[in-house]
Amino acid sequence: MATERIQEIEKEGKKAFPEAGSEEELRELEVRYFGRKSELTGILKGLKDLSADEKREVGPAVQGVRMALMEAFSSAKERVAREGRDWEAERIDVTAPGANDPLGHLHPISLIIGELGDIFTRLGFEIPEGPELETEFYNFEALNFPADHPARDMQDTFWIDSEGLDTRYVLRTHTSPVQIRYMETHTPPFRIIVPGRTFRNESTDATHEHTFHQFESLVVGEAGDLTVGHFKQLGETFFEAFFGRKVSVRLRPSYFPFVEPGFEFDISCVFCGGNGCSSCKGVGWIEVGGAGMVQQKVFEAAGYPRGQYQGFAWGFGLERLAMMKYRIPDTRMFMSGDLRFIRQF
Ligand code: YSA
Hints:
The chain has two domains: about 1-85; about 110-340, Bira Bifunctional Protein, Domain 2 (BirA Bifunctional Protein, domain 2, 2-Layer Sandwich). The chain is about 40% helix and about 20% strand. The protein has twelve helices and nine strands. The longest helix has about 35 residues, at about 50-85. The radius of gyration is 42 Å and the shape is rod-shaped. The protein binds 5'-O-[N-(L-tyrosyl)sulfamoyl]adenosine. 5'-O-[N-(L-tyrosyl)sulfamoyl]adenosine binds next to strand 5, strand 8, strand 9 and helix 11.
């Protein structure tokens, strides 16, 4: 009798669960078939009153049906959940273009500084830094620009109000003060480059900015170890690596108080190879900066004994190099903040 009823319950349940159309209906069926007052639970509870033979027959039958209905219940639950979802609202267009977060990138001057670092570290150079707010001593005096000397007029200077301080401050007009700072704490031989920001109180045009970058190099060894020939060779090695083509170097006599002899440093025009074009104004050479053999007075200012060491140095304009490399017509573009310019690099 109980077994027949169990089979009927199974039949009813297997029909009811697939027909359930909502979570509400499912909850009712759950109570009806598995609740504390459900028929199946009643039969299970009554097992204890049955004879051993009846128990052997009814027990497995009721458990089997319970399991089968549990399965029917769980697949009905999945089906109802699936049917209840708003598939249209959840539709994903897998062909839609991705929403890229805009990524920043390096400023062309930072890129150039990175390139210099790669080239010169391969050649065994160190890359020290120095302060942009510099004392009069490091920016001028130690570099043999005495106070009130006309050579100071070579570099229009932003003087900082230093009233009440024991020294006068400037925004450094060149990267050369880092030569002194480095020599104060290092003993030759050494080779360094110093890329950095510099400032001049001058009116701006296509080749002049008040804020620009220089790239200093200083190589020092024992007296007699270094010649102008080494210097030229280093320049050619660097410029060929930087521009990716053969470059010749020409040194013209010039004056900087911290070198003797001093030179203007020219390279063969990278646009025409030295034949003459509009970029080099027909002469085949382009000036890239100042250079020379380090003055013994400068070594003395850094604490070295006179005559023991010899060295050479240069200071190039970084913007000028970048302008040549990327054919940029106006140096003011670097500081313009114009993203149309910056994004091209
Ligand atoms: C000379 C001899 C050395 O042994 C070492 C370094 C030097 C260079 C020296 N310190 C100096 O500043 N020389 S400079 O005044 O002729 O500037 C060097 C380069 O900086 C220039 O050739 C130019 O390329 C760049 N420059 C100067 N003023 C600039 C500028 N670039 C953009 N705007 C300006 N206002």
